[in-house]
Amino acid sequence: MASEPDRRLRGPVRIVGTGLLGASIGLALRDKGVEVVLDDVSPAALALAVDYGAGRHPAPGDAPQLVVVAVPPDVTAAVVERELATYPDAVVTDVASVKSGPLERLRAVGADVSRYIGSHPMAGRERSGPTAARADLFIGRPWVIAGHDDISYQRAAAVEDLALDLGATVVPMDPESHDRAVAVVSHAPQLVSTLMASRLRDAPGEALGLAGGGVRDVTRIAASDPGLWVQIIGANAEHIRPVLTALRDDLDRVIDALADPAATGAPRAIAETMASGNRGVERLPGKHGSTTRFARVVVLIDDRPGQFAALLTTIGELGINLEDLRLEHSPRAQIGIVEVSVVPEHEQRLVEELEGRGWRIAAAWA
Amino acid sequence: MASEPDRRLRGPVRIVGTGLLGASIGLALRDKGVEVVLDDVSPAALALAVDYGAGRHPAPGDAPQLVVVAVPPDVTAAVVERELATYPDAVVTDVASVKSGPLERLRAVGADVSRYIGSHPMAGRERSGPTAARADLFIGRPWVIAGHDDISYQRAAAVEDLALDLGATVVPMDPESHDRAVAVVSHAPQLVSTLMASRLRDAPGEALGLAGGGVRDVTRIAASDPGLWVQIIGANAEHIRPVLTALRDDLDRVIDALADPAATGAPRAIAETMASGNRGVERLPGKHGSTTRFARVVVLIDDRPGQFAALLTTIGELGINLEDLRLEHSPRAQIGIVEVSVVPEHEQRLVEELEGRGWRIAAAWA
């Protein structure tokens, strides 16, 4: 990875909290030969993480160079404060999803924040516990390093190196900007997805039978863990609320327009809402941060093992790189519907070559 | 397909409107040797669809057995009325996304609804125009047949046969139930996605750089065509409004809780919202209508042509069927992140076999 040899972590690294993130960081560091000390308020969780090879039990005289606090958001600041006091030579970071609150609380209690820098690896939210831990969890993922003025560049580098050593992409961002950013790209979308999914609770079964890819996409993350999210949302309420309030104002305008959809101004209100959504979604960066638009080709496959691989082998043989791929299943038929995205220059050739080989194309558009 | 030979369409079938749906129906019927007559208010669009092989120009003396009206929602009822009057022996259907309105308007003007039955193929919303038309567009997709009391079983069968001949799955549903169903599983999710995407318009670029799979899923359909959706939403306002109003009430509770997230009742309000979303999304049927839960395994691949196919070939060789697949790209690194879903019984073996072959597993959970 990109770090220079002279900056690499030498350890020992102490990890407090052996859930998915803590145990995964431990596994990844152990793979690199770094000595890892684990700790957890739950002796059972700690023993399990040690069994999984994420590190060793703490011992008297441990003198960590770096402490990683990977505990639930509501206890993060308190644990960081304790670790700063216990290990006066260590740099301490945490991996909680909200970054302003812990720093503010640490400053309020007079903790030595010249040795603390928060961070946030954007990985692993869908599952939990040390048994799900993986050394490769962070590869290719953004890892925010939430810098502030009271820590030196040299000390912050220890946390940056941790992220780089684990294969993540370092994203420097101040705590306030981080919290505003995750409010709009993560926390508000979570709540919006949840609120839409709630509307499915009382829908008739026959209505759910008509559900297509759209509602599935919108509500997918509504399956997230309530316990974790109550803490995340509570901790970032200040920044989530204005996003949701603005959304509610837009929603009220739509609801008003729907009361009399033929009234003067109503169609325009709906059209402007739709166009505004178009412009918003266009701002999301694509593959590897690019904003290139791709052509999409929908191929029908029989729903049997090997069919899908055969299709992708064919595409690979044509030398065409897949930019994106989505698999849908027909709600009732034994048919797989595969939507592949390619650069627009390849669309026509892909369709012709696939049709020439007997594949059925249900749609193609740039 | 499932229709008996004595019920098969013999044609000629007249299709009014040569956009994506009309032209695709034409192509599919032509493939089956059925005579197709096309018509369109735009001579250029008509000529193009004829060029594409979707059917022939109309001629004096045409006596269609079946008329399919595939025009924009706002003119659907008027065109159906005209077709019923012009071809007094034909059964007429339409393919608009909203079904109560046209039937009510036809009854109000005294049209012969004993020969009209609305329908709604759930396909093709993402693109438009005859050049995107495909004979296979409807394969494996639900096609709602919106029955009512004034049409005989025998006549309705002509429309059912059309759907079956085109490879769709017939879903009988009365017009009111259809409109309520699409309000909650299609139209409200569209607006919710759009409203969330609108919040991205003013977000800082660095915030968008942190966008992960969640916000992308939630906002994907926000890229939909405003012109079409203004008509759909306007036509089904009556049923969309109560869904959005209930959602707004839930949203208001969340916004209130966020004003003072530590206040008595606030964490509980957020937890209940999250749990309610969990229950809603669990109701969506999975593959082929089943509600089985799948295990998921996240595999890292180099982002080069052929890597993806190699992975799927390996999975195919293990005899493990893919239930679902999602491809993510790392925002900055040249890494592909592939999430495959398999039946839970196969998870452990899949992980072991892939790791044994040198694939990197970033996560696995049931």
UniProtKB/TrEMBL annotation, chains A, B:
Protein name per Swiss-Prot or TrEMBL: Prephenate dehydrogenase
E.C. code: 1.3.1.12
Lineage, uppermost ranks: Bacteria, Bacillati, Actinomycetota, Actinomycetes, Micrococcales
Key words of the record: Oxidoreductase
Organism annotation: Curtobacterium aetherium
